[in-house]
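Late entry, written up from scratch paper. The run itself happened at the end of the previous shift, but nothing got recorded in the book at the time, so transcribing now.
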Amino acid sequence: MGRHSLPDQYGAGGSAPRPRARRRTAAVATVLVLTVAAGTAATVQSGLLSFGSSCQDDPVRLKLAASPDLAPALTTAATRARDDDLTSDGRCVVVEVTARDAYKVTNSLLAGEKPDMQVWVPDSDLWVQRLTADSGAAELSQVGNVASTPVGMAMVPTAAKSLGWPRKTYSWLELAGAAMRDDSLRLGAVDPAHSAAGLLALTRLSSGVAQSEDGDTQAAAMMKALSQRTSDTDGQVLETLPRDSSGSEQDNPKRNQALVLTEQAAFTYNSAAGHGGGLDLFYPEDGSPRLDYPYTLVDQAGPTTDQSRAAIRFMSYLRQPEQRRLLARHGFRASDDEVSDALVKMAGGSGPQPYAEPAVEPAARDTLQETLGMWTITVQSARITTVVDASSSMSEQVPRTDRSRMDITKASLLRALATFTPDDEVGLWKFSTKLDGDKDYRVLLPTRRLGDQVGDGTQRDRLSTAFGDLAPLPNGATGLYDTTLAAYRAATSSYAKGKFNALVVLTDGVNQDPGSISRGDLISQLEKLTDPKRPVPLILIAVGPDADRAEAERIARPTGGSGQEVSDPAQIQSVILKAIVASGTRGESQD
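Output as recorded:
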């Protein structure tokens, strides 16, 4: 994942388009070079190609979708550009700005919907990275970054003063801990599935908790507690604050005294609140992640060369001093080298809070995906049946280790089990060929709550033992198709409303049962069993060099699930969490 804050990233072409799964031809690169680097760039940027009002007769029109917090500033800038007769190659540039939540744009593009804009400015590079990681999503090219804003923790003044603001500084974990310990200091946040600020903050919190004893369990408990006060969008979370500054609502259990919030959101809130009704802002001493507002060309929208050049021209216009001041008046940082004390003061910051420190390095994409996956299964609660290949090939040694595929698979499943709460439901099947009479599979533990008492222990205890007892069967082949159909039929028939339902199948090979149904029949049967109102995505994980990722994807896709591939069984935990996030995203896009 790219950086979230770079000192020189704001100019047009200030950062090259980042690595992605697919790249356009040299056309985009040519546009960038011609517009920014070539000799004509100085002419374009100086506006010497403007021919007065006549350029309005045949303007280049751009549709730009922007994060709702940034959209008002870009709308003003677009109006100014038109009034100034901003031109690109002698034609006026007319930009239509629409405010759109980044998660909604991401979901629609992941669902394969045709883009309706040529330029997209989400609040974070996270959304662009999520799309470029999906081979079927729209093609994107990042040109630069419009602005930035750090993420901190804002509090009503009485709460902030009780923690020693502004003299005392805290880490993310200490701030969250103070809120969790004190019922009167209620902490609200935005759903990390919908908010980059929420996900970046949650990842910081989770990394801190993970260092403690029994870290996974503690992280799940923290997420569960935080989820009780989570809002759907960044705008909605501000509505959970007390409505006035009189203190009459301080004891209202529905109102929050602290929020995970960006500096810009706190600035806007305080600007509207007036004297005595604002927020104080803590900048965590272990670093504030930042939103970076990447200016992104949506290649799949089919922009013409003129539109691409005009888009670069508008990006250059945004970096002019007057537009930088416009962004600052809206509470954004237009440069990380120049942090305005006036902006920080209006946002509720004050020294010695470390508001001028460089942005913390963002977490790796896999770490962010794991955090989001843990959040999904922790908050929503899950009902997951796990089906594990026990064919003889699972006994083969994993390269560069002294352990078999099955050994590492079991260890990875045990780590994944630790991320589930007592309310989650998990079951276990194993399969090979003719494992139970003519059946290729055997149900080891029916799917039930991990906290349920089963015999002398809980379901979690029994699963831990069952995972540890898994062993490859000598001469066992891979009865994949019949097993997958039977397990999916069981998962859909026992659907639990209000939970994230899924079937996870792990196999290191292709179907080897000559007496089973065909792949075509399997897919046809899965399609018939799939009900969008009762979704049960199939997550089919191909483990090792002999498994077929393409086949896994073809089988899983009709259910709303996905086919995944891991070369090392140790990656299974992170892949399961990644697949859960992807399945949840597809489900939202269908809502």
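Residues 26-146+293-335 form a domain with the D-Maltodextrin-Binding Protein; domain 2 fold (CATH 3.40.190.10).
(Scratch paper discarded after transcription.)
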